[in-house]
Recover the amino acids of this structure.
């Protein structure tokens, strides 16, 4: 059975657009949620600058719950919630909801670990200067953790690309969907190879960009 | 002026887990003084210096800075007072993501000072510590000594009354240590800033401190002017600290004489300590001339501590016991201390 490639390429570019859209929007929202989550985890923990056992423990459990559900199950499990947020549970935009829930808390964890890498002395220094907690976060913690945060966000982005491929299961489209529909279900090896190479290149590009930015921030 | 009154610090909760790091610290640092606290690791030095600006909150006691008790201040007032207390650290704690200029400017940025003012002030501070041409470098491009200079410039940015030095030279080599200590002396001499430093290095105490306190097991076991601690340490721990820079241990050959002595056969070995004016007068030669005894110098040194000459000699006295007594009395009357060396070498 010959495969009609002329018909494939437009499909491919639509899928590319869908993947980029899902990843970009999900990433942006996840970062907006994830960074504050990471900051809250660090400041509310024991001996943090705003120690609060309750907030820390509750947030910790919530994150662990979301982190422990496999993405494909999460997509299905939160369908009512997705419908409530975007009005539908099917399509590219609908896929953003589970992608964000999956990625935002992951980013929260990664940001937490980046912030914990900042030397304890930095906080002592800030306090000795009479900095407010707000200033400690903005002027000391986040800038000092920036290079590490960029690397960790790169890891999260690559995880997100992987998850977005699975979002095809709810009709989200995208490169992953293309691979499953044509490459897997219709045994089109050529399509499978093209899509896999595309994902590999995409991942490489993201990692290279992340390394470059982090290095630039570190200046070494 | 800085006064610590009966500071206690207890870590942990519950009967078994409680650790008392500070057990009633009383200190008084006068304006413009350089006060050193020396102790071994685990003595509580680090906790003590952090109790001054409340990086560690004392469990009880008062921290009086210019008469204001910091412990009782609400958070916002405390932050204001902290700006009058600069601090430098063993590991420098420079912000790696910022240039030297930005590091020094940080305390001023936190206060939302105008840009032009910050620029002028940072330039002035960097020239004070001799690093103006390094303004646009990053901390990892500097040597340890330069990093500590940046730390000092930054600590001075808010024109503090007090500077806290947390093992400020412990990560530096001897030459760099000397240069940083010279800078700290300049901070005191030219800016009139009171300095409280903790260290385990007795040479730091010897080189720049006016007064010293010896901390052991969370308590101050001895304190006073540095020259007194060096010449007449009262506690074993103070003696062992003094020994690290002024070796006054008894050489083996002399120790042998002491060990072999008995009540009927005294060794006649004495230690003579003299300081200040008495070093300028030929005390030993006068003694030998005036009394019919033999005076033999076995071992010793004469040095200078902060401009005050100080000697520590081991001598052997021989002669008629009555005459020796009179000679000893004579030495004691001339601002020197003489005492028979005990078997443990003290």
């Amino acid at each position: 059975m010959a495969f009609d490639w002329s018909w494939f390429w437009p499909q491919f570019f639509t899928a590319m657009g869908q993947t980029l859209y899902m990843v970009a929007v999900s990433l942006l929202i996840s970062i907006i949620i994830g960074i504050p989550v990471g900051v809250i985890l660090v400041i509310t923990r024991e001996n943090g600058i705003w120690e609060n056992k309750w907030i820390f423990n509750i947030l910790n459990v919530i994150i662990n719950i979301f982190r422990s559900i496999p993405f494909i199950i999460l997509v299905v499990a939160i369908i009512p919630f997705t419908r409530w947020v975007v009005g539908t549970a099917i399509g590219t935009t609908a896929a953003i909801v589970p992608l964000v829930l999956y990625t935002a808390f992951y980013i929260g964890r990664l940001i937490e670990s980046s912030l914990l890498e900042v030397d304890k002395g930095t906080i002592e220094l800030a306090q000795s200067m009479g900095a407010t907690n707000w200033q400690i976060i903005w002027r000391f913690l986040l800038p000092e953790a920036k290079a590490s945060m960029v690397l960790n966000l790169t890891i999260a982005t690559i995880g997100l690309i992987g998850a977005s491929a699975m979002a095809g299961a709810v009709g989200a489209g995208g490169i992953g969907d293309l691979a499953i529909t044509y490459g897997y279900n219709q045994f089109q090896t050529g399509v499978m190879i093209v899509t896999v190479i595309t994902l590999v290149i995409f991942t490489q590009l993201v990692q290279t960009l992340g390394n470059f930015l982090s290095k630039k921030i570190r200046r070494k | 002026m800085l006064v610590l009154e009966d500071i206690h610090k207890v870590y942990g909760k519950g009967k078994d887990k409680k650790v008392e790091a500070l057990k009633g610290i009383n200190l008084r640092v006068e304006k413009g003084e350089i006060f050193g606290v020396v102790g071994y690791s685990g003595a509580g030095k680090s906790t003590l210096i952090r109790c001054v600006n409340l990086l560690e909150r004392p469990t009880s006691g008062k921290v009086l800075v210019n008469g204001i008790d910091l412990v009782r201040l609400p958070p916002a007032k405390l932050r204001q007072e902290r700006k009058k207390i600069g601090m430098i650290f063993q590991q420098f704690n420079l912000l790696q993501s910022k240039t030297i200029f930005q590091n020094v400017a940080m305390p001023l940025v936190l206060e939302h000072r105008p840009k032009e003012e910050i620029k002028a002030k940072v330039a002035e501070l960097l020239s004070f510590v001799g690093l103006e041409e390094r303004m646009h470098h990053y901390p990892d491009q500097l040597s340890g000594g330069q990093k500590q200079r940046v730390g000092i410039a930054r600590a001075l940015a808010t024109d503090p009354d007090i500077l806290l030095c947390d093992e400020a030279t412990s990560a530096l080599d001897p030459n760099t240590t000397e240069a940083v200590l010279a800078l700290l002396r300049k901070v005191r001499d030219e800016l009139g800033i009171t300095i409280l430093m903790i260290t385990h290095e007795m040479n730091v105490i010897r080189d720049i401190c006016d007064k010293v306190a010896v901390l052991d097991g969370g308590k101050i076991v001895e304190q006073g002017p540095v020259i007194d601690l060096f010449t007449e340490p009262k506690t074993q721990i103070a003696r062992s600290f003094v020994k690290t820079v002024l070796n006054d241990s008894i050489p083996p050959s002399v120790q042998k004489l002491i060990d072999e002595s008995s009540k009927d056969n005294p060794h006649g070995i004495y230690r003579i300590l003299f300081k200040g004016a008495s070093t300028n007068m030929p005390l030993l030669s006068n003694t030998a001339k005036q009394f019919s005894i033999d005076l033999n110098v076995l071992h010793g040194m004469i040095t200078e501590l902060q401009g005050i000459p100080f000697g520590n000699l081991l001598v052997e006295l021989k002669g008629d016991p009555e005459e020796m007594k009179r000679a000893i009395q004579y030495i004691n009357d001339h601002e020197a201390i003489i005492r028979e060396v005990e078997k443990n070498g003290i």
